[in-house]
Amino acid sequence: MKRIVVAALAALASLSAAADEGMWTFDNPPREAIASKYGVRLDAAWLDRVQRATVRLESGCTGSFVSADGLVLTNHHCAEECIAQNSTPESDLIGNGFYAGTRDRELRCQEEAVSVLVGTEDVTAKVAAATAGLSPEAAGTARRAELARLEQACEEASKKARGGPFKCERVSLYQGGQYWIYQYKRYEDVRLVFAPERDIAAFGGDPDNFQFPRWCLDFSVLRAYENGKPAKTPERLRFDWDGAEPGDAVFVSGHPGNTDRLLTVAQLETQRTAFMPFWLLRFSELRGRLLQYSKSGEEPRRTTESYLNLVENSIKVRRKQFDALLDPALFAAKSEQESALRAAVAADPALAGSASAWDDIARAQAVWRDMLVPYTFIEGGAGFNSTLFSYARSIVRAAEERTKDNAVRLPEYTDGRLPAILQSLQAASPIYPDFETIRLSFALERMREWLGPDDPIVRQVFGNESPDALASKLVRESALADPAARVALYEGGQTAVDASQDPMIRLAVAVDPAARALHKRYQEQVEGPVNRGQEAISKARFAVYGNRIYPDATFTLRLSYGAVAGWKEKGEDVRPWTELSRAYERATGEPPFRIPPRWLEAKDRLDLATRANFTTNNDIVGGNSGSPMLGADGRIVGLAFDGNIHSISGSYWFDERMNRSIGVHPAFIRAALEQVYGAKALLAEIDAR
Amino acid sequence: MKRIVVAALAALASLSAAADEGMWTFDNPPREAIASKYGVRLDAAWLDRVQRATVRLESGCTGSFVSADGLVLTNHHCAEECIAQNSTPESDLIGNGFYAGTRDRELRCQEEAVSVLVGTEDVTAKVAAATAGLSPEAAGTARRAELARLEQACEEASKKARGGPFKCERVSLYQGGQYWIYQYKRYEDVRLVFAPERDIAAFGGDPDNFQFPRWCLDFSVLRAYENGKPAKTPERLRFDWDGAEPGDAVFVSGHPGNTDRLLTVAQLETQRTAFMPFWLLRFSELRGRLLQYSKSGEEPRRTTESYLNLVENSIKVRRKQFDALLDPALFAAKSEQESALRAAVAADPALAGSASAWDDIARAQAVWRDMLVPYTFIEGGAGFNSTLFSYARSIVRAAEERTKDNAVRLPEYTDGRLPAILQSLQAASPIYPDFETIRLSFALERMREWLGPDDPIVRQVFGNESPDALASKLVRESALADPAARVALYEGGQTAVDASQDPMIRLAVAVDPAARALHKRYQEQVEGPVNRGQEAISKARFAVYGNRIYPDATFTLRLSYGAVAGWKEKGEDVRPWTELSRAYERATGEPPFRIPPRWLEAKDRLDLATRANFTTNNDIVGGNSGSPMLGADGRIVGLAFDGNIHSISGSYWFDERMNRSIGVHPAFIRAALEQVYGAKALLAEIDAR
Questions:
Q1: Strand ranges inside A341-407, DSSP E
Q2: What CATH number does the domain located at A2-113+188-260+551-687 have?
Q3: What 8-state DSSP symbol labels residue B257?
Q4: Which long-range CB contacts under 8 A does B400-404 form with residues at least 24 apart?
């Protein structure tokens, strides 16, 4: 691991773009580095076209328009919840796959929406003006109010100018170094068009997740609708079915979710000593409970699958992040970086205002570590983990927040956010009582364990009940599984909430004062001082390094550049692509190494040398799933769906030697649609000029 | 946590016995410190009497003789496996408790044995002579052979001199600074005499484990038999039914299992970055699986309970140990201690031979971290977690090892160890196939996850099977649940093993070459260099600090001194005892806060001011469970059963301010036997002069 440290320190010293590192905003891509390394000059038209064809799946992924009638290409695992929600005991679309064939058979994804970034405004100066001279706590309140005002103004302006559903969102880049308002065109009617069988989409399952070589057909096709009709999306991307060769430049456009590369050492300490062990212990046990339940029958298996995949994927990510945090080399490198910047600040009188920032953040971290456990269970909702409780909390909080001025509401309940809440409450998503009860019982039991049986909230919630009995009663007696009941409560506001005898509503009401108190303490003693400190550090960073830096990922649009490339694993070269033949050889007939019948039947027709998956050295992260991987000409040469195991430490640093992205090769998609599924209409729409 | 570091450093500087710290061997108790602090002078007669009345429960606890006819006082949780093994669906002794009443109704604990330390010999010089001038690997082999020879000689001598079952064991103290042969009188026939209901023995269950205030009647009574009759044990201890008051001196005699206070920083790094996360992730998931299974019915609950308690207890310990390892203060203190000793070594030419020891150990740790995962799964057996596999491995290895000379066998299969193996194979302990299958399936699944589906051993073990199918088949088709089948294979030796078609035997045979290769690599590249390095450090430590140090715990007899004392928790005084009344107030009627019917019925007869549990500042650790807590006059003033939550970091350092032991008060035991259970014959035997 020695070379990584050296590389990281070298990168710090020069901050040159020698490595293909960074998730860059579209207003500041490293054009010169790209041109000099790959001979590709990205002009404004290229960037604008790619931006308008890249969509954000609000459930946490990326996609891209691949037809003029709103077809969206994304991963199978990104559509998995939609596919599961459209499944029944008689028709298991996860297991059997789905192809609509005609538009009238496309299936609504009840809780999905896709958004396209159509405008951005830098409001850093406005926020600075609104918070000038205030204490950290007061600045926090003022900042939230100003950003809420700016969002609202943006939404009203766009409604007037363009009609249709637009959504404006505050974005904080460079840890508060910049504030932006991003304006999205939002499609709230999204439907499932095509999905392969889980066994080929996620061939190798959890054991192969984050591994390479791989053979996953991890793609699906959705369609955005507008006013009940397929959306018009002329800015669609085209495929380069041949894909890219080793060394070819590859660009990834998408919405990386979260990185922590700019955290201070004190913040990383919180991750290492408090957050990660606490999270991993709980989720490992939850994994065990869900697995054991899912093995108890076909229906338990089906109803648990999608959530369990999410849990297992998250565990794998957190585990490797934790490994990175436990690596003494990481902390050594981060400490050196921090010392270097602090030395630069100390040497420049103009940056005197930033000098105390690191210690201020460290003090706030001590508070945060102290309150992390109760905050997570009570305000974070980990003590009530269930979909029904989430509905109840949304209803209870929305009722109270809507009586307040938009600018002083909890950020999740501003006018701009309410439509998404209503969409979720209206969605006819199936609720599985046994599955709900298991999650809730687990959550209650662990809350009691970590907070202790004598904690006042624990006593209030439990009375004399056991976790199992309480969870079972709450789930059985709540009417919130019914969308109509939810919507009635939401629309009835505070009066309806007050009158409701629904036990889940009553629970959400009962714990809300304690939860809000924790929220307030967090805002005042953690978030406020941390934001203020980060702004100061960010100012220093810009002053010292200029614009040769990129912000941490924030689930907003970014561009990554790189090339098709393998890497060396324990001294052995890893070839940057796989071929279909090996998937057949590797199959055991048992999940997760089972080839679906359609693929067994099609084997003889297929060219087994077809490339299946491939790797590049693009710097991406979760949220980039479903991102189009583009050649220099802007055509799709792959579909990002994973990273190798080394990519997970990308949360904290980019290791150019080892960090690789994994994509589905276009030839694999073509072969599937053409030779296996006979999806002629779909292919024709994608191929249409 | 700052004050702890200061305390630890101060302790290092002077190594004075100011704190009531240490698990001292009976040949080197800190007599002066005890005399000056508590005015108690421990003479040879006192020590000898306590040693002969203290027993080791071979399943991992301590006990003491409390009657002249072999009655053994220990914890309920120490007898839990015995109680569970004597339970049936119709007669749940864990749930309902047990009182034999007469000797003919006492129930055999199939897998228990108790041992009394009757002699010790310091063989450090003999081992040094046998290993002089050899390389670390060769020294390892020579040391094992010499210790095996010494054990065997001791056993032959004691058989000639005294008859009856004696057992001699090698003991390494001070990390190889001293080698001893300990001679035990061993009682292999142990029976259950009395156990209260789980609900009062473990009142508060897992949520209250390691917590205080507590109200646990965590005691049980066993009896040692010899030649089918109650053993004669005139060196029994007597009770002081009034117990001890705050400030009164308390001595704990017992067998603390393991501490890691003398590890080097490199070894602690292994614990922090490799061992702990790996262990905790796996066991948290296993906990989830077992909990979910145990909730599926009364029989699953009953058959899982004892093992699950063990898992949950271990998780709590590891979790807090991990917290300690993640505390930067711990590593700072340990680094300072190490630097101080290294500086002393560098300054003394006579200690030049010890100078490279720390780096040698660090190099071995790098190897160990690299092989920890495969070693744990394949050689450690974590990939095959099931009682049936344990039987299979014992049978397969014993067959091969018994063909070798005693001195070159694996240490677990020397002649001295074989009787315990045979006892375990003969024991008619119930095997629950569903429970076995769940553990085994989990183990296989995680082995595949961590080693990867393409690992050669994984491929060999799995073929084309899924973990569930494979586990189910192995458990269903193996005959090893039958003691007669196990004993026949054991006695048939290599020929029987070769001929066996039992799938569990075949699995154990199949993985044995890989497992033994890992064992060999471990011995040569980890254990050998580490032992050699530790011996060198130990030499230096004795040279610098003399005998004012105590060895790490090794599940051998130790004495701890201290007093009844509370502590300050977040600024609040914790009173060092609890009273029975509060248990009734705290009861919810639901497990684990349920008072058993007998206790509800007896409530009016009981003095509710009776002390239930109490705390002392004795330095003890797991393995001390069941230890007698003694007053200055050698009478029993308590029964150790737990530590407070701060005691868990005692694995690495002793925090005098916070680390407390928890005991059952004698008055609670007396009230139970007299007022609740009417156990007159038992009380009469204990009270007999």
A1: none
A2: 2.40.10.120
A3: -
A4: B400/B494, B400/B512, B402/B493, B403/B493, B403/B494
User: What are the start-end ranges of the E strands in A3-80?
Assistant: 54-57, 61-65, 71-74
What's residue A13's pLDDT? 40
Question: Which is it for strands A249-254 and B628-630: parallel, antiparallel or unpaired?
Answer: unpaired
Cβ contacts (< 8 Å) between A323 and chain B: which residues?
A: 273, 277
Closest CA relative to residue A214, chosen from A685, A661, A647, A676 = A661
Task: Calculate how close chain B gets to A204, using CA atoms only, in Å.
Answer: 9
Chain A residues within 8 A of B280 when measuring between CB atoms? 277, 280-281, 284
Give me B268's structure tokens. Answer: 């602690």
Q: What pLDDT is stored for residue B344 in this prediction?
A: 95
CB contact under 8 A, B590 and A464: yes
| C-alpha–C-alpha distance, residues B166 and B185, integer Å | 5
Chain pair A-B, CB pairs under 8 angstroms: 117
What pLDDT was estimated at residue B359?
Answer: 97
CA distance A182 to A197: 36
Contacts of B482 (CB under 8 A, 6+ apart): none
Give the distance from residue A463's alpha carbon to the nearest chain B alpha carbon, in angstroms. Answer: 8
How many angstroms separate the CA atoms of A143 and A131, rounded? 6
Q: Do B280 and A285 touch (CB under 8 A)?
A: no
Token pair listed for B522: 């471990």
Is the Cβ pair A291, B296 closer than 8 Å? no
For A277-334, the pLDDT digits (tens) are 999 999 999 999 999 999 999 999 999 998 999 999 999 999 999 999 999 899 999 9
Give the number of other CB atoms < 10 A from CB of residue A569: 13
pTM confidence score: 0.90
Query: Which residue, among A393, A377, A400, A375, has the nearest Cα to A508 in the 3D structure?
Result: A393
- CA dihedral (B169, B175, B177, B179) in degrees, to 10, reads 10
The answer to whether the beta carbons of residues B663 and B215 sit under 8 Å apart is no
> Cα-Cα-Cα-Cα dihedral of B589, B592, B596, B602, to 10°?
-80
Among B267, B184, B180, CA closest to B551? B180
Which pLDDT band holds residue B619 (cuts at 50, 70, 90)?
very high
What is the band of A18 on the pLDDT scale with cuts at 50, 70, 90? low
Yes or no, beta carbons of B287 and A291 under 8 Å apart: no
Number of Cβ atoms within 10 Å of the Cβ of B264: 24
Name the token pair of B279.
């262990």
ipTM (interface pTM): 0.88
Parallel, antiparallel, or unpaired for β A661-664 and A567-569? unpaired
Identify residue B366 by its one-letter amino acid code: A
Q: What is the pLDDT of residues A33-50, one digit of tens each?
A: 999 999 999 999 999 999
Interior angle at CA A557, CA A553 and CA A560, nearest 5: 70
User: How many angstroms separate the CA atoms of A75 and A61, rounded?
Assistant: 8
Q: Tell me the pLDDT tens digit for each residue of B639-678.
A: 999 999 999 999 999 999 999 999 999 999 999 999 999 9
SS3 annotation, A517-578: HHHHHHHHHHHHHHHHHHHHHHHHHHHHHCCCCCCCCCCCCEEEEEEECCEEECCEEECCEE
- The total number of residues written for chain B in this structure: 689
| Whether B319 and A281 lie within 8 Å, measured CB to CB | yes
Q: What are the sequence ranges of the domains in chain B? A: 2-113+188-260+551-687, 125-187, 265-543
Question: What pLDDT, on a 0 to 100 scale, did the predictor assign at position A4?
Answer: 26
Cα(B523)–Cα(A410) distance, rounded to whole angstroms? 60
- Residues of chain A with Cβ-Cβ distance to B204 below 8 Å are 453
